[in-house]
Amino acid sequence: MDPNKKNNVSVLLGAAFLMATSAIGPGFLTQTSKFTATHGAALILVILMVIIMDITAQMNIWSIVGVSGMRAQDVANKVLPGLGYFLAIIVAIGGLAFNVGNVGGVALGFNAMIGLNERTGAIIAGILGIFIFSNKNAKTLMDKVATVLAALILFSVAYVAVISQPPLGEVASGVTKFNELPDMFTALTTILGGSCGGYIAFSGAHRLLDAGISGKDNVGQIRTSVITGCGSSGIVRILLFLAVLGTCTIGTQWNAENATMIINAGNPAAEAFRLSAGNLGYRLFGLCLFSAGVSSVVGAAFTSVSFLKTLHPFIAKHEAKFVVGFITFSTVMMVVVGSAAQLLIIAGAVNGLILPIALGSMLLASRNKKIVGDYKHPTILLILGIIVVAISAYSGIKALPGILDLFR
Fold first, then answer.
1. Which of 158, 242, 349, 360 lies 20 to 30 Å (CA to CA) from residue 29?
2. Burial of 241: CB neighbours in 10 Å, binned 0-12, 13-18, 19+
3. pLDDT given at position 1
4. If pLDDT is split at 50, 70 and 90, which confidence band does 83 have?
C-alpha cells in the first residue's frame, strides 16, 4: 500500500474515533444511564432519533469544513462577520464545562476500579491528558489512544448488555411510542448534545484539517470517516441502553427499586453495571469510564483550543501550551467543584442548545461559493440538515425548563 494512502487511512480512522470517543465520554455514559432508568424502553425512540440526527449533522459539518479547508469558526465568520467569534466562544465554554466533567469521569473510573479518592483521581486524569498532549508526536498518539480506548469501551458495554438480558420485545415496542416523546425533550436535547453538540461535531473535522485532508476531492473519504465515528458511538449508545434497561427489568416487569438506585447514584452507569454484573461489572465499568474520560479530556481540550486559536495569533502560535492550560484548568475546577455526574448532564444539555447555531451556520455556508467554490452540496443533506436544526431548536426550547431544573 502507498505510504501516504496508509497514513490517510490511519488519520481518517483516528479522526473518526477521536469524535466517537469525544462523544462516548463520561457524560454519554451518565446521561444514557440516567435517562434509561427514568424513561425505560421508550428511550430507544430518542436514541434512534439522535443517531440519525447525529449522522446528518456531522455529515453536513465535516463536508463543509473539509471542502472549504477552513475551521468551522472561519467558515461561520464568512457567513456572517462575527458569527465565527461567537461560535468559537460558546463552543470553548461548552468544551470547558464538558472537560471538567471528563476529568471527573476519569476520577470516577479510578474510584470504581481501585477505590481511589475522586480528587486524587482527577489530578491523575489531568496529568495523563497533559502527558498525551506533551508528547512530540501528540496528534499521532491521540489517534492511536482514541482507537484503542474505543475498542475497550465497546467490549465493556457489550459484555454487560449481554448478561443483563434486556427485554428486547419491550425495546421493539418502544420505537412506536411517539406519544411519550413530549416527556423526553430534555433527554433528546441532552443526549443529542452529548453526541454531536458543542465541540464534539468539530473534533474529527478539525483533526483532518490539521492532517491536510481537505478539498472536494477528499469529501468521500471524509464522509466515510463520519459514518465510522457516528456508527461506533451509536452502537455503544444502544448497547449501554440495553445494559441499563436489562438492569431495570426482571423479565418484562419494571424493577422500580433498581431504577431509583441508578437515578439517585452519584455514578449512575457504574451502579447499573454493579447491579447487573456484581463487583466484576463495577470494576469493568471503572475501566470503561476511565477509557472514555481520558479520550474525552484530550478531544475536548484539542477541539476547544482549535476554536480559540482563531481569536488571536498568539493562541495559534502556542496551541500546545493552551491545550495543556485548558486541561490544567479543567482539573483544578473539578477538584474544587466536584459533582461530576450532575455537571456532565448539564454540559450535555448546554451543548445541545449550541447545535442549531453551529449546524445552521454550516448549512448557510454550503450555498456560498466564496466558501465552497464550485462544490455542489447534496440537496438531500441540506434538507435533512434543516430538519435537524428545526428539531434540535424546538426540543431545546421545550427542554429549557427541564435544563434549568438541572442547575438547582
1. 360
2. buried
3. 44
4. very high
Decide if 311 contacts 85 (C-beta within 8 A).
Answer: yes
Domain that holds residue 216: 3-406
The string of pLDDT tens digits covering residues 216-259 is 888 999 999 999 989 988 998 999 999 899 889 876 688 888 89
Q: Name the amino acid, one letter, at 399.
A: A
Let me know: does 97 contact 346? Beta carbons within 8 Å: yes
- Which of 38, 389, 362, 52 is closest to 233 using CA atoms? 52
The Cα 327–Cα 325 span in angstroms is 5
Q: Which amino acid is at 202?
A: F
pTM above 0.70, yes or no: yes
Domain count, the chain: 1
Position 383 scores a pLDDT of 95
Q: DSSP secondary structure string, 168-223?
A: HHHHHHHTT-GGGGGGGHHHHHHHHHHHHSTTHHHHHHHHHHHTT--SGGGHHHHH
CB 375 within 8 A of CB 217: no
Contact 197, 348 (CB under 8 A): yes
Alpha-carbon Rg for the chain, nearest whole angstrom, is 20
